[in-house]
Structure formats: structure tokens, C-alpha cells
């Protein structure tokens, strides 16, 4: 049995920050298939191995730990692997990333995008997130071509999570690279460097042709549709 | 100058978990008024004292730290005050609470409640959150009348945050006490005990007649309207 099992849908989205940390550390993990994840999620609270609401859910067999919530899992693994500098600012950034994923899917598909709502989000809120992360990166030891957050000489938990969200966004939704480049060139550079780390590059290669490509569901179609109109 | 300044709107919502921790510890803090908070939030990224997107924002003058994101602030203060047991499970619970606040406001008012959507949320998702927290509490050292999460002899970060969200919900939206009692009597008991802690009771007394009463905005009106129909 591998040391870790990640229970998440077969999509990048909230899974990739966790996968990037596991992969970069060289952890031994497997992933439950979608049917298993769905069955576990739908069990009654009393019948679950751990009282979580929704994936991602991590099972750490070595430590006998179950844990849900992407930010909690990322912070847990980061500490376990000795990867976290500045835990509070890292957690703040990871909470931001969680919000960004929620917002780009209009709250997990509670609403669909149309041209006007997408343009407003892209130019205001998404641009603002990028500008704010640009300042966080630039003021904390990162330049476009070198350095990691909070003065680290190697990628830390925050770098890996930022890379997982921002690189995955511009990789899977390539129309958005120009926006990130324009508002956050330092973040773009960091995200590209994280994506090119040997073990992350291997992970990404395995995911290269996977579908759904980003967040799945009707909201993925909606996102693709508004982005296609921008070309 | 007080040691801490909390920048948040004059509503309970995402502020109370932070306020409960500050108050219980006996910290010396003040709060920026709504106009100051709004002005700070609306500054350009380069002009902010710290690149945050939205309140809550904490300024810890003693440590020279600025920090945004409710879960990050709660974990930061909890560690600073020596209140956190089981940081990972605590963070998971605090992320849950953040989700619950998001969901009960239909994503900060992105949608409004109507009778059908409210009934579905109340009976499914909200009931499920309650049941899951009930199991977390019951399996981690809490009973209705005694005990705190993760075996503590005194309230910890997770207890204070759970109390702040669940007690505030049933206090400000009293129609929901019956639901919490039915699905999560242990959580109800814990929340009531947290609310009755001397410094928390003093904090609550100051807030007793404050308006908006819960989350503010059109979504507060919408929530009040669907709850009024249930009486």
C-alpha cells in the first residue's frame, strides 16, 4: 500500500496543489478512482472513515491521519515534508488560491459565465488577485527568473501551491497567460519555474491529455465558451 | 495604540471567529471603522499597507505583522496565544466554517434565497455540516456539557471558532437553533459553553443590539425573509 491516498476527482483544480506537494517531495501516493471518491463522499456521516464533506480528502497511512480541506492538507503535508517557510503568510496565500478557484468557477458552478460577467471578473477581480500575488511575490524574495517565496533557496509549500494554481490556469486555459503576464510577470515566472521542476514536469506529463481539462462540469463548458469568444 | 487592529465590517460573520480568539485571550485590540476598512480595501494594490484583497485583515503591531484570510488569522492568533491543539484538524474545521459562512450567504450574495433553495440548503447541506461537526466534536473529547476539542481542558482555537460561527448563527438567526439541536446537540452544547465564557459573554453583550445582525447586505434581508416564513 502506498503511504498516502488522495481522494479527489480526476481533474486538476483543487487536487493539483496537493499533487504538486506530494510529487515534488517524491511521496508515494495513489489516488482513489472517481467512483470510489463519489461513494465515500455520499456515505452517511456515521459511515465515513472520517467526517469530511467533500474531496479533496487525504489518507496518510504512515501517520494514521485523515484530513480534508485543501488548505489544511497543503499545510499538513508542507510541515510533514519540511517545506513550509512563513506558515501564516503561506496559509493566507493558499486560502487566496482556494478563493480564486471558487471564483473562476462561479462558486463551483452555482452560476454560469456569460460574456459580460466573465469580462467583469477577468478585468477586475481576477486581475486584482494577480496584482496582489505579484506584490506578495516581489516583496518576498521572488523575481521572474529566480528565488522562492519568503527567501527560500528551494521551492516551499507556498511556491508549490501558487505554481499549482496559476500555472495550471494558464496551461489549461492558455488564453489567460497574457493576463497573468501583464499583471503578474513575477508570478508567471515563478509558476513556470515550479511547473518545470523535474518531478512536477513528470506529474504534468501524466496529466497532459486528461479530460475534463480543468474543473469539470457545466462550468468548465461555460468557461471554455467565454474564453473561446476571446480569441 | 492597542497591540492589534482588526479591519473588518461591523458585523459578526467572518469577524467573530477572530474576535472570539482575541477576546478570550484578553488581547488589547481595536477595530477600524467601516469607512476606513472600505477605503483600505479599495486602495490600489501598490498603495495598501499589505497586499490583501478583502477584510478581515489583522494588524499585529507588537510583531509587525499584517495578515488577511480568516483561517490564516485564526491559526496565527491561536499559535501566538498558545491556544491551538491539533493544528491540522483545527484548520480543517476553520476552513469548514469559512465554507459554511459562504454557503449560508449564497456566496456572499451572488444569489438570493427563495423558499425552495433555502429549504434544500437547510435540510441537506447545512444539516450535513452540522452532522459532520457533531461527529468531529463527539469523537474528539467533547460532550454536550463538558470537554473541548482534541482533549483540551480549556477552550482552544477550534472551540472558539466553532463557537463563534455556530453560536452566532443560532443567536442571530434563532430559528436555526432547533436544526442545530436536532443534528448536532454536542456542537450546540459546546457553542453555548463558548458563548458563556466570561470574556466572550462580555464581547457578545457589546454586540447585542448591533445591526446589521449577521452578514449585512441584500443577502441578510433574503435570509431573514426565508427564515420569517418558517415561523
Describe the structure.
The structure is a homodimer of 231-residue chains. Chain A has helices at residues 16-25, 34-42, 70-80, 87-104, 106-109, 115-138, 157-172, 177-183, 185-195, 198-207, 217-228, and strands spanning 4-7, 29-31, 57-60, 65-68. Chain A is an alpha+beta fold and 231 residues long. Chain A folds into 2 domains: 4-80, Glutaredoxin (3-Layer(aba) Sandwich), CATH 3.40.30; 87-228, Glutathione S-transferase Yfyf (Class Pi), Chain A, domain 2. In chain A, strands 2-1-3-4 form a 4-stranded mixed sheet. In chain A, helix 4 (87-104) runs antiparallel to helix 6 and helix 8 (177-183) packs across helix 9. The longest helix of chain A has 24 residues, at 115-138. The N and C termini of chain A lie far apart (46 Å). The model of chain A has no long low-confidence stretch (mean pLDDT 97). At the A-B interface, strand 4, helix 3, helix 4 and helix 6 of A face strand 4, helix 3, helix 4 and helix 6 of B.
Q: How far apart are the termini of chain A?
A: 46 Å
The total tally of domains of chain A equals: 2
Assembly state of the chains shown: homodimer
In which range does the helix fraction of chain A lie?
Answer: 55-70%
Name the helix and strand elements of chain A from N-terminus to C-terminus, one letter apiece.
EHEHEEHHHHHHHHH
What are its keywords?
homodimer, 2 domains, four-stranded mixed beta sheet, globular, 231 residues, Glutathione S-transferase Yfyf (Class Pi), Chain A, domain 2, 57% helix
